[in-house]
Amino acid sequence: MEGENSNKRREEDEEHLFHVVYKVPSGDTPYVLAKHAQIVQKDPEAAIVLFWKAINAGDRVDSALKDMAVVMKQLDRTEEAIEAIKSFRVLCSKNSQESIDNVLIDLYKKCGRIDEQIVMLKQKLRMIYRGEAFNGRPTKTARSHGKKFQVSVKQETSRILGNLGWAYMQKSNYMAAEVVYKKAQMIDPDANKACNLGYCLIKQARYDEARSVLRDIQLGRTPGSDDLRTRSRAHELLAELEMNHSRMLPSDIMGLDLDEDFVDGLEKLISAWAPSRSRRLPIFEEISTSRDQLAC
Hints:
By secondary structure, this protein is mainly alpha-helical. About 65% of the residues lie in helices and about 5% in strands. A hairpin with a 2-residue loop joins strand 1 and strand 2. Helix 4 (about 60-75) runs antiparallel to helix 5 (about 80-90) and helix 6 (about 95-110) packs antiparallel against helix 7. The N and C termini lie far apart (about 75 Å). The model is unreliable at about 280-295 (pLDDT under 50).
């Protein structure tokens, strides 16, 4: 009898360890089976079928919908994932909507739907202006590579601005990208965004400004300059600038695509978080006489 109890405890311990190692919840519900198919069996097609079953059964719908979208993205079924998110997010809790937005933004980026990505990024920034981000809390718990960490609203704002700047770069709207990257750097500067800012300045034939931004990375003045890949990119951009700037022509300048309310919201955040740097960027003054060109 004692031996049977010992074996049973050993099996229970092994099962617990299995769920901890593979981060698979215990049980036999559709969601649990879907996670088992995804992580342990590495069968994404089976996982998608089981995630659908979980959603239809009301079994951890928030997680099932997000996890299914991630698996679909891995299988290049991104458009299908977008439609699933848009159709079934109404079944998810209010607290999960922000993280669902993040999944949807990533899907838009994956399939090149840049305009929709920009709309959603602006929407997330407006939520921050109104104090609605993180469900009103100052921080949220995020996960990366299996590790949890705290993210502040300030850090999240800089991250979203960086993504918005990148989206504008994909549309070759370097003026708007420059504005957004400069705001991000005022809030939470880092070398990767500085590289992108330098590139935007180069594309506008503003070579002295670009050179200054990129040299700060080389000299280690910008946070994150110790990242070898970022330093290498800064070096490449500087080399390209020095070699070819006499032959470079500015790219066509597009409309700023930043409406007045959006800009004012950014200014208020900068005033609160970086008061010593919260001077209105010259680019806004330069276009004040032609505001009718701006797209909402």
